[in-house]
Amino acid sequence: MSAQNPFDQKKAAILSEINSSQPDLSPKGSIDRLCLPIIKLINSHEDMVTTSSCSGRISVFAEGVKDYKGNVKVGGKGQGGKWLYVSHDSDKVRGWIDTLNTSDQEIISGTVEDNLIASDGSTRYLLYKYEPFILHVKCRNFEMASRLYNVAMACGFRESGIGSNNLVAVRINIKLDVPIGFVDDKEKLNLFVSPNYIQLLDKLTLTKFEENEKKMKELYVKIENQIINGNPIASLEAKKEQETKEERRERKRREGLERQRKAKDQKAAATD
Amino acid sequence: MSAQNPFDQKKAAILSEINSSQPDLSPKGSIDRLCLPIIKLINSHEDMVTTSSCSGRISVFAEGVKDYKGNVKVGGKGQGGKWLYVSHDSDKVRGWIDTLNTSDQEIISGTVEDNLIASDGSTRYLLYKYEPFILHVKCRNFEMASRLYNVAMACGFRESGIGSNNLVAVRINIKLDVPIGFVDDKEKLNLFVSPNYIQLLDKLTLTKFEENEKKMKELYVKIENQIINGNPIASLEAKKEQETKEERRERKRREGLERQRKAKDQKAAATD
Asked: Which Gene Ontology molecular function entries are recorded, alphabetically (chains A, B) (predicted)?
């Protein structure tokens, strides 16, 4: 194997891990099915490699033991909280609550009692969440990171950003974050919303899954058109849209100098 | 006034706007009180200028008219939706619902009816949100943007990112995003949660306001210590923590070459 630069080494290592049959480092141990097309597309470009991804998920989280100020207790039982349910599959949204209603872990339906409103910060909430697609892409250089960032932003992934070492985070704001109950001192799960409200949340989560998948497909097409099969003019246009008045003036000045220089070079070449 | 580069021009224009008594371009027309210290701190550095901010807020949003697929109808009444309540002030969290319960706009308390669960995508939801502090800072160069980004990330603002033109977005994930009702075809607001549940949400929002303010203060201190009064060693340490194995090897190699070069220069200087 010939000597490679650090980016190529990292890319080769990541691709070999993706293509192996070993579980990866995520809790789930594998790449989400819906992420595979965009991961394959991005990795087909020699200046990009995907480092982590999540296709979007529903989760139900039980908070850990807290003190009266709401600070998580160190060493307490249930410290740090735990996920009671996680699924990346829209077919596994409806019915999640039945999987929690077991002999070990009974769910008590109820309402918000007055004493809960008056309680201190130690209440351990049950949180229902929908989190959208997120993708991290390491780029060979800042120019590549910038191109990917601009395409993602223009496609509605408005919480994207470039981090250290040309690592681009592609993020969108399609979320649900709903307190649906609490864990009592006997570790039982108490709901303070109705079964119908849970069904409504599940229905909303399904629309989030759809919206999210639609945005993922849009992003796929934009990356394919503007980066993989991209022409430099398109990326220059994108740049023009982003720049401020001062930057535009500065760019025009540079472009003018460049034209003058070229004209001079041509003249020099003609008279040589 | 002497000639300035584009960054200094932009910074001067922004500072003069901040210091004027004219309303700014935000819907509220002024900078949130809680943002003032950190904005002042950041703008005291010659290589940074704040371009927009929000100190965190509670909001209640009524979705606009949608078709059965959930797409927003163009030209429909209420198209695009509207904010029924927005406040950046934790003293104005409790009691928001009373401000909506007017003769013009009655709120109907209720539950989630079966027909709502079965309905198509056209339901116009009432959404209760808490959104945390967000800040945009334009930096003179990428090095400065990178330093600010690293400090923000290390301080728990894990959704931060660098955008185009060295604009850093400082973001944190402290959120609530809860469907609490819907707008019916007579434009009336129907809740499907109980008054006690709303009170509980308000209580949770107040803890979010507190947590958010605590994080803002932490960020202030970190920026002050590590950037404003910062020493280069601290920023080098932060860099070491972020880098990959390959990048570490590459840095070590560069540092080695640098040492050799210096040693050679000293030797040359000594023999000159």
From this structure: tRNA methyltransferase activity
Q: How many Cβ atoms from other residues are within 10 Å of residue B82's Cβ?
A: 12
- Interchain CB contacts (distance < 8 Å): A and B: 136
Is the ipTM beyond the 0.90 threshold? Answer: no
For the CA atoms of A92, A93, A96, A98, the dihedral, rounded to the nearest 10 degrees, stands at -90
Q: Do A176 and B171 touch (CB under 8 A)?
A: no
Cα torsion A205, A206, A212, A216 to 10°: value is 150
| pLDDT for position A105 | 77
Alpha carbons A164 and A4: distance in angstroms, whole number: 21
Bridge-based pairing of strands A167-171 and A124-139 is antiparallel
Does B9 sit within 8 Å of A179, measured CB to CB? no
CA distance B209 to B89: 9
Q: What is the pLDDT of residues A81-134, one digit of tens each?
A: 899 999 999 999 999 999 988 777 778 887 888 888 888 888 999 999 999 999
List, in sequence order, the alpha helices (H) in chain A. Answer: 6-19, 36-43, 96-100, 114-118, 142-154, 195-223, 232-242, 245-271
CB contact under 8 A, A196 and B111: yes
Query: Which residues in chain A touch residue B242, judged by CB atoms under 8 angstroms apart?
Result: 164-165
Check B160 against A161: CB less than 8 A apart: yes
- Report the chain B residue with the minimal C-alpha distance to residue A168: B161
Interface of B with A in 19-58 (CB under 8 A): none
Q: Which residue of A has its CA nearest to B121?
A: A207
CA end-to-end distance (rounded Å), chain A = 47
Q: What is the mean pLDDT of chain B?
A: 86
The answer to whether B50 and B36 are in contact (CB under 8 A) is no
Q: Which CATH number among 3.40.470.10, 3.30.1960.10, 3.40.50.970, 3.90.650.10 corresponds to the domain B6-230?
A: 3.30.1960.10
| A163 at interface of B, judged by CB pairs closer than 8 A | yes
Length of chain B measured in residues: 272
C-beta atoms surrounding A190 within 10 Å: 20
Indicate yes or no: CB of A161 within 8 angstroms of CB of B165: no
Q: Is B187 on the interface with A (CB under 8 A)?
A: no
User: What burial letters (b/e) apply to B22-51, b meaning 16+ CB within 10 Å?
Assistant: eeeeeeeeebbebbeebbebbbebebbbbe
Would you list the domain boundaries of chain A?
6-230, 231-272
Report the DSSP beta bridge partners of residue B134: B54, B171
B112–A196 CB contact, under 8 Å: yes
pLDDT tens digits, residue range B1-41? 556 799 999 999 999 988 888 888 777 788 999 999 999 99
Whether residue A4 lies within 8 A of chain B, CB to CB, comes out as no
Pick from B112, B121, B175: CB nearest A197? B112
Determine, for residues A244 and B112 on separate chains, whether the beta-carbon distance falls below 8 Å: no
Instruction: Decide if B150 and A171 are in contact by the 8 Å CB cutoff.
Output: no
